[in-house]
Amino acid sequence: MRDKIKTIIWDLDNTLYKFNDGLLDGWSYAAAKYTSDNHDDLDYKTAVQMALDGWKNHRNSGYHFVNDFGFDQRKIINAVDEALDVNHVIPCPQTPNLMENMRDYHHVILTLAIKDWAYRVLDHTGLAEFFHPDFILGAEDYNFEDKAHSPRGILTALDKIGGNANEVLFVEDTLPNLKTAKDHTDVNTAYLHHNRTINDNDMAHVDISVQDTPELLKWFKEIPAA
Question: Which of 58, 134, 161, 189 is least surrounded by CB atoms within 10 angstroms?
Fold first, then answer.
């Protein structure tokens, strides 16, 4: 598989850098503040618990607000991204150096965050130079449709690059996103497990599983893991 890959489609959050508790809390609290401020029957404390549960069980802090209260996902995402402080993102020190060896690949971002957050994160983590702005796809580029339930994101990315899906590797930290992509395309998939327990039943749609982005980049160039 490695030899046929020409393009890497990257998720952004918890993929090109790793989540930490401060950022995750900020994400959930921002979703809770927006939704409790905009719904008479939703208090902030309850909203926080819903946001935390949404992240824990669905990898989406806005999940319950969209599905149980009818909120517009795009408004939640915009509110959260505007509230987040990029300084809570902890850059991975290895990734920029390893990406230097990957300049012969075409790199694309496909994130459920808005573009503005992607630009800020890439600047903050030292990765902006590896991604042309035309190939940074935010949620606004594919109608804010959750990658776990809609193939619109991966199809938009594949259409944007104009390449063959079997020459593309889609990198994610969220298994349902990979499953949806695999169910609708011939894209190759890489799962970043971050030492999470993996159920073998979930791996049918995963072509390669590694701990994190540095391990994946070392695999590409056959650099021995430390």
Answer: 134
Clarify whether residues 102 and 201 are in a common domain.
yes
What burial letters (b/e) apply to 33-67, b meaning 16+ CB within 10 Å? Answer: bbbbeeeeebeeeebbebbbebbeebbbbbbbbbe
Same domain, 212 and 116: yes
8 membership: H or E segment, kind and range? strand 7-10
* DSSP 8-state assignment for residue 204: G
Q: In the structure encoding, which two tokens stand for residue 100, read together?
A: 């230097």
Last residue of a domain, one of 31, 66, 87: 87
Continuous H helices in the chain: 21-37, 44-58, 63-69, 73-83, 95-100, 115-125, 152-161, 175-184, 213-220
Taking the C-alpha atoms of residue 60 and residue 64, their distance in angstroms, rounded to an integer, is 9
Give 158-199 as a 3 state SS string: HHHHCCCHHHEEEEECCHHHHHHHHHHCCCEEEEECCCCCCC
pLDDT tens readout for residues 87-132: 999 999 999 999 999 999 999 999 999 999 999 999 999 999 999 9
Q: Are 100 and 93 a contacting pair, CB within 8 Å?
A: no
| Domain carrying residue 75 | 21-87
Q: Is 157 in contact with 9 (CB distance < 8 Å)?
A: yes
